[in-house]
Amino acid sequence: MSDQRVVRELEIQAYLQPPPASVLNGAAAVVLDIFRATTVHAALFAGQACAVYPVADFATGVTLRDAISGSRLIGEVGALPPPEADYGNSPTEFESLDVRGWTVVHVTSNGTRALVKAKDADLALSGCLRNMSASIEHLLASAPSRIAIVCSGDHGSTSPSVEDSFAAGAYVARLQHIVPNAAIRGGARLALKLYQAYARSPSRAFADSPHGDHLRNLGFQADFTYAGDIDADSTVIALTVDRSGRPVLQRVPALTH
Question: Residue 163 and residue 209: Cα distance in Å, rounded?
Fold first, then answer.
């Protein structure tokens, strides 16, 4: 049976680096940071972590960790954990740990900053290649008129990254298959062409990533295999706010059909 749908006036946009927060008002958004923040979130929630607080810098992260009893501070500066972090930013590190019940404060150079900007979207997800189909299903279930795919980019989110742009193209291709009448706008067209140019192969795109070169030099090769495993996970991760108004990521119950 075909899973194609007719959705009235659906517009699909992709931003190859995060737009101003106001641009996402009224959109159902998914934030991508394939190397490695949103892939880390998939690993944490697959391991039954409780909550992840994305923050933009380590000074804020230390303060928040101290305010939330029992929480762990994770993340990176230049891809490596600074002294104040309890753990780094490698998804395979968390795959090997027992993270059940953890509350995590997460700081990265790109991904967590992009997520903080996405908090004003009507719906915001932390997405990656591993949970792509599940994330798309959840976006479409909200009956949006506009889906925004937000790449975290590189160099403090100031420039596009190959891996995020490729993943955005994968999302666009999947959405286009499900909703053939959707309008594909601007950056979404470019991302789709990039995805097709790499023959839909994460490994080919990852091999051309300057950020990937940096991670390889630091010995994080295993993260590429993990990050490129499309639809290995059905976890949906939504950005909400806690009782104090702080952005927080939590696992969303699976959709029932």
Answer: 6
Angle between helix axes 186-197 and 162-178 (nearest 10 degrees) is 100
Provide the angle, in degrees to the nearest 10, between the axes of the packed helices 132-141 and 162-178.
50
Instruction: Cite the beta strand spans of the chain per DSSP E.
Output: 11-15, 28-32, 51-55, 72-75, 103-107, 123-127, 146-151, 183-184, 236-241, 247-252
The closest alpha carbon to 33, from 131, 99, 147, belongs to: 131
Number of H helices, E strands in the chain: 10, 10
Structure-block tokens of residue 154: 């590189």
pLDDT in tens, 197-228: 999 999 999 999 999 999 999 999 999 999 99
SS3 assignment, position 193: helix
Closest CA to 40 of 106, 123, 135: 106
In angstroms, the CA 187 to CA 125 distance is 19
Distance CA 244, CA 234 (A): 29
The predicted model scores a pTM of 0.95
| 84-128 pLDDT per residue, tens | 999 999 999 999 999 999 999 999 999 999 999 999 999 999 999
Residue 124 is classified by DSSP as E
Burial class of 112 by CB neighbour count within 10 A (0 to 12, 13 to 18, 19+): buried
- C-alpha distance from residue 224 to each of 110, 115, 165, 183, 192 (Å): 17, 22, 15, 32, 21
Q: Which residue has the tokens 């189909």?
A: 133
